[in-house]
Write a structure and sequence with these properties.
single chain; 336 residues; alpha+beta; ten-stranded antiparallel β-sheet; 15 strands
């Protein structure tokens, strides 16, 4: 029988329709139309992107915006928000608005456009994650920005417009609704119990074990109890920490390994699907509460794009997941 499950963090329900019996082989992967297109991120095409704002791997003394880099950060050529201007909050009757001010950057993760996390060799993931930390910290200096998200769209079905491996960094001057709901839930739980909600969920999942894909010394990969999408996973640090930029060197190395292994699992179990990856961390400025350092935990969500969101989901806010998180966990465990 189908189940309705409530997310343990926020007030969101999903339908687990496991009686549909979907297996990894039931999800057909469409060819990626992005392959073979012109690659402006390839070495030698540095003049086809805006001037870089940060770079890793190029020899000391080499000219900027030239080949020889390992990781390169550039402003998005077609940004969703403008870095220039003031917020100018204003109202028009019942309607509120501010200027579309924010940063929108691209982290080009590797010179080889065919590279992805599952292929990472020694040190490659460390440079990518160091770029994440560096850009979050750099954008934190701008008092106009309230929140930053780092995300990857891989494959046309996931919203990518270029196939070359890259992440994006965006800041917004307003705290997003989804993040606010998580922060509110974490604060309220801590006020009632003097414990971290995320730590309690993680400890319960570790105790149960049925949705744990991998548990290493520093990180846990698990299928959420109320997963919205087939084979959705979350990655949590074992050390409760609200801000991703506080990650230790040891944890950064371990996270690179965990991300590589998780993407290898997807490639083996699901034939390398399109996916979205999101890093969710604490707000940039004005802490949401006095207890955020104790009640919130940064984490990474990875959502394979195997099903479509349709009328029911848009009309109700419910998601229908045809693969139970427990079955997905088993497939992903066996894939490694």
């Amino acid at each position: 029988m189908p189940e309705l499950r409530k997310d343990p963090i926020i007030d969101r329900w999903v339908i687990i329709a496991a009686e549909r019996g979907r297996r990894p082989t039931d999800f057909n992967r469409a060819p990626d139309p992005l392959k073979g297109a012109f690659d402006p991120f390839a070495p030698g095409n540095e003049d086809r992107t805006p001037p870089e704002v940060a770079v890793w791997g190029r020899s000391t003394g080499a000219a900027p915006n030239t080949p020889g880099w390992q990781v390169r950060v550039v402003p998005n050529k077609f940004p969703a928000l403008s870095l220039q201007g003031e917020l100018d909050p204003r109202g028009m009757g019942l309607f509120d608005m501010v200027n579309g001010v924010g940063a929108h950057e691209v982290i080009i993760e590797h010179p080889n456009g065919e590279w992805d996390f599952d292929q990472a060799q020694d040190g490659e993931m460390r440079l990518v994650l160091q770029a994440y930390v560096a850009r979050i910290n750099a954008l934190r200096e701008d008092s106009r920005f309230r929140y930053v998200i780092v995300f990857r769209n891989v494959g046309a079905q996931a919203g990518a417009t270029l196939s070359h491996a890259h992440s994006q960094v965006m800041t917004v001057p307003i705290l997003p609704k989804l993040i606010k709901e998580q922060l509110d839930a974490a604060r309220d739980y801590f006020e009632r119990k003097q414990r971290c909600l995320y730590s309690d969920v993680l400890n319960q999942e570790l105790s149960s074990g049925e949705r744990i894909v991998e548990a290493s010394e520093h990180f846990v990969v698990m299928s959420p109890f109320a997963a919205r999408f087939p084979f959705e996973v979350q990655i949590f640090p074992r050390r409760q920490c609200h801000d991703f930029t506080l990650i230790s060197t040891t944890e950064l190395e371990a996270l690179g390994d965990v991300l590589s292994r998780t993407l290898r699992r997807y490639k083996k179990a699901l034939n390398g699907p399109a996916y979205n990856m999101m890093l969710q961390t604490a707000p940039l400025s004005r802490p949401h509460s006095d207890t955020i350092e104790k009640d919130f935990c940064w984490h990474i969500d990875i959502l394979p794009r195997l099903t479509s969101v349709a009328g029911f989901e848009w009309g109700t806010g419910f998601y229908i997941n045809p693969v139970s998180p427990e079955a997905a966990t088993q497939f992903l465990r066996e894939a490694e």
